[in-house]
Structures are given as C-alpha cells and as structure tokens.
Amino acid sequence: MRLADKVILVTGSCTGIGKAIARRCVQEGARVVLHGLETEWGEAVREELGADKSVLVIADLQDEATPALLVRTALDTFGRLDAVVNNAAWVASSNIHTTTPAFFRQMLEVNTLSAFFLIQEALPHLKERRGAVLNIGSVNAWCGEPDLLAYSVSKGALMTLTRNLGDALFREEGVRVNQINPGWVLTEKEIQRKQEHGMPVNWYELLPPEYAPSRRILDPAEIAAAAIYWLADESGPVSGQVVELEQYPVIGRNPPKK
C-alpha cells in the first residue's frame, strides 16, 4: 500500500474532491482526519471509512482555533501527522461590479489564509515525519472566468503560496509542498450550484465539446488518484510543483473549430 501507516488530514472532506481523497487514502493504507461543515455528510463518510481509520472534525476554517483543533485531533487520535491536504474551498460567483470588501476578504480567508495557517500549525509535526502538504487549487488560478473573480484570485494566491513554501519548507524543514489544479469536476456541490443557476437536472450530460471534449467532466475519484502520488514517498524530493488536471490545455488553448 502506497500510504501504509500514514496519517493524513484532509480539509473539506465531507463531500466532493476531499471525500474522494480521504477514501482513496484509506484504500492505500492511511488513516485520515476528516473535516467539514456538514455534520450529516461527514458522519456518513466516517461510517464508510470506519472508526479505526478515520475521525471527524466539524469546524469552520475561519475560526482561528480550527487549525490547532485539527492538528490536535490527529495527534490525540492517531499519534502522528504525516500530511495535510488543503482541499476546503468556497466557490462563489463575483465580478468587478459585485465583489464587496467583505466578500473578497471572506474568500481569501477560506481559500488561502486558512491553508497557510493550517500548514503553520502542522509544520512541527510534518517536519518530524518529513511529511507533505498538498494544496488543491483550480485551473482558475491562472486567470479565471469573469464571474469567478474573487475565487480565481484566491486560488492564484494559493498557487504562489505553494511555490514559495515548496522551496522554503523543503530546504529548511524537509517538508514537501505541492499543488493540484483541477479543472471542472462533477462534485455534489457543483451539481447543485449549476441547478441553482437555472441549468437542467442533467446538465452534466449535455455539455458541448468546447467545455468537455470527452463529453463529460472530471470525477472526484480521478483527482484523488492523482493526489496519492504527492502524498506517497514515491514522489521523492519533488516540491514546489503545480500540476493541472484538465482535459484540455489551460494556457494557450486553441479555440474550438466551428
């Protein structure tokens, strides 16, 4: 097993990509600290994975006490912490006209600052294990859509954080920091968001090829499969890297032919 005996903390793991990563980590021999805001969903994931393999923390990442709570839970429950996956994120639409100061600050708090403060809190324990951090970003980090302004900026900042700490922490602490930038992923919340925007219940089955050349979008399990490499020892000394997971080039993509 690629993660045998490791203890991995995955934020935002009650649903979507985080849930898929936690599930795959357990399949690869790890024990996981689950985290999120949705108690019912979180309990279902914990029941699926087993009480001997997982523990659940329901807490808001905007609370300054949450990073310490998450790290302490890992240590008290499993006695160690080998890796942190900063997956939790707030996805909300905004543009130059609709982005308020409070909205922008909250977006950065949830999507960027919480990741930094969790790494900061976990660092002494990750150093002890020569562990790893995996940040889950977005292809929107490169520029983003017009109506995902604040979200895109928050993911761009996360990408810079990854590059910076990926160098500094590996040199000084032996802790690797890398990032995955997923493209469009079919999570429970994404299905719900698009329906709230007026799209049909089966919108993900009706995608034109310019948005999904394969005629489908990514599954959370496909992101989870890629995450394992960065959490396992097999990724060796690789640090400070950002990898896009999408079905077309993100930068310099040719427009679809009509």
UniProtKB/TrEMBL annotation:
Pfam families: adh_short_C2. It comes from the Bacteria. Gene3D superfamilies: NAD(P)-binding Rossmann-like Domain. Signal peptide: none annotated. Belongs to the short-chain dehydrogenases/reductases (SDR) family. This is NAD(P)-dependent dehydrogenase, short-chain alcohol dehydrogenase family. It comes from Siphonobacter aquaeclarae.
